[in-house]
Amino acid sequence: MSSLKQIIRPLLHARAATELLAGGGGGGLGCSHAGSWTWTRHMSMASMKNWDPAQFKPRKAVILTKVSRYEYEKIQNEKMSERQLEEMLTKRGSDYTMIRYHHNVHKALEQEVVHGLEGAGMEVKVVKRYQYNDEVVKWADLIVTTGGDGTFLMGSSKILNRNKPILGINTDPTRSEGHLCLPKHYSFNIQEAIDAIFRGKFKWFFRRRLRVTLIGLKEKINEAPVELHDQQLQYPEYRYMDLMTENADAGDHPFKEPIARENTAQQHTRILPVFGLNEIYIGESLSSRVSYLELQIDKEPAFKTRNSGLCIATGTGSTSWTFNINKLTHHAVESLLKIIYETTKYSLNWKDPKLVEAITQKFNNQLVFDPEADVMCYTLRDAISVGTFPTAKENRPRGTAKRMIVKSKCFDACLVIDGSLSFKFNDGAKAIIDILEEDALRTFQLYSEL
């Protein structure tokens, strides 16, 4: 394994080798969770939080490993010889040599994880995405992911028991940050990470997650979700029509589904069998169509809004999509400083790069918060004002909450969890989003060598 380290270590940024504590951010695409779910609690919150790391002695581990680009292409083109595959990828503009190289790096690190866990006396199962199911999760004492943030998100999606820990190993450290995984340092020192865990040299890190409760007709809220790459627009021929208004009734357009009013049909409740680790998105499937939503933030009065979708994120997801929605660029800050100077005549060098950098960084840093915080942040993308320009009396397009209630007034909308698992969320559908301690994901934060 020393030769592997010699090959890929120089490719890392120098600071990566000094990272010794697990990061707080998250990113990448998630994966689905299907199947039935029975809600259970196994012990009190206090006892779970105070579970002594020194007492953690897992015996069975499941390693969820990613499908590398090379493996994917081999599956998609199984009848091709290696030479034919290389020629096809080259014609498509891909670097076959680098695809094979990164595949080999991934598999070598995967095998090092397997050998390290087996060396610690554990029974180990290695599974791919299509083999990862509830039965496998139930069997394991520990879930380990080898890949990047996307693999970690998929691994966490099936963990509904706060007592089941998950450990992420970044097996593509030269190209992926892997915020949800252990720092890159451990990608080249896997045995060090395993030893630290079995010696109790770590602390539990509980990443808060979003719980979604759907309310509506039984057949509607129990519809099976789809993966985004499989999803198609329900009415693509109407992509340029915006036929719905806030006061629309059933029958406004030929494809609108009749809405069951509360006094005419029994409403059912369903807690979705997957939690959001990064974020939840609610809005029209077609990005060019306006999303109509009714929101209630905590105990504040409900209000209606037109926008390009609602993004609700955890502290883990605060460095991901919601950060990029809200971040300020240096150009925007420079423009604001110039306007302040022209308006107030205050002695201000709006072209000073150090000043622009300091303000930009301070604003953007405030968008990021602790993954263990029991609060969610929300953002209404491109919120539409009543007039052309916004006023001070309008509802703020972003903020924080502990509970949100969202009612859909949309046409062909979806509720998407962690960028992948999509549930229908059309006119009349209602969702309650909570962030609860009992739903947190148990992860590791390793101590540095003393």
From TrEMBL:
Molecular function, one GO term: NAD+ kinase activity
Catalytic reaction list: NAD(+) + ATP = ADP + NADP(+) + H(+)
One matching Pfam family: NAD_kinase
EC number annotated for this UniProt entry: 2.7.1.23
GO biological process annotation, one example: NAD+ metabolic process
Top-level taxon of the source organism: Eukaryota
Any Gene Ontology CC annotation: mitochondrion
Subcellular location: Mitochondrion
UniProtKB keywords: ATP-binding, Kinase, Mitochondrion, NAD, NADP, Nucleotide-binding, Transferase
Similarity-based family: Belongs to the NAD kinase family.
Function: Mitochondrial NAD(+) kinase that phosphorylates NAD(+) to yield NADP(+). Can use both ATP or inorganic polyphosphate as the phosphoryl donor.
Subunit: Homodimer.
Name of the molecule in the record: NAD kinase 2, mitochondrial
Organism: Acartia pacifica
